[in-house]
Amino acid sequence: QVQLVESGGGLVQAGDSLRLSCAASERPLPTYAMGWFRQAPGKEREFVAAISWSGASTNYADSVKGRFTISRDNAKNTVYLQMNSLKLEDTAVYYCAADGRPYSRLLQPSQFRSDYWGQGTQVTVSS
Question: Rounded distance, CA 21 to CA 77, Å?
């Protein structure tokens, strides 16, 4: 069983940056594709970004492309989401997820399989 713990959320102003982290608490993540999702109040959870097990491939939602960067450090069992130029509409609870299929490179939202979830971290962007 993979347990994921997100951190790094907070309250920032529009235009600021934040870096979220997602660490595996028990098992290593090197063979799993990882993703970030978010859920705003009253809305469904949506895909934000995903990264392949090696880090060689990434995919982003159009709404964050060019502003957010997903990366991973397999030696630290940690995945990151660097968020720049934050907007009011980025306000949400951010969740990381792991695709439990080893060595998967399926990073499209319809292909990524969220087998494991973290508890989420709140990001609030104010004007």
Answer: 10
Q: What is the total residue count of the chain?
A: 127
18-73 pLDDT, tens digit per residue, is 999 999 875 667 789 999 999 999 999 999 999 999 999 999 999 999 999 999 99
What are the tokens at 119? Answer: 């508890």
Strands 121-126 and 92-99: antiparallel
Q: Give the C-alpha separation, 28 to 74, whole Å.
A: 8
**How far is the C-alpha of 112 from the C-alpha of 114, rounded, in Å?**
6
Tokens 């102003």 belong to residue: 13
71: closest CA among 61, 58, 80? 80
pLDDT tens digits, 87-105: 999 999 999 999 989 898 8
Q: What is the C-alpha to C-alpha distance for residues 94 and 101, in angstroms, rounded to an integer?
A: 22
Q: Are 125 and 15 in contact (CB under 8 A)?
A: no
Find the helix or strand (DSSP H, E) in which 18 lies: strand 18-24
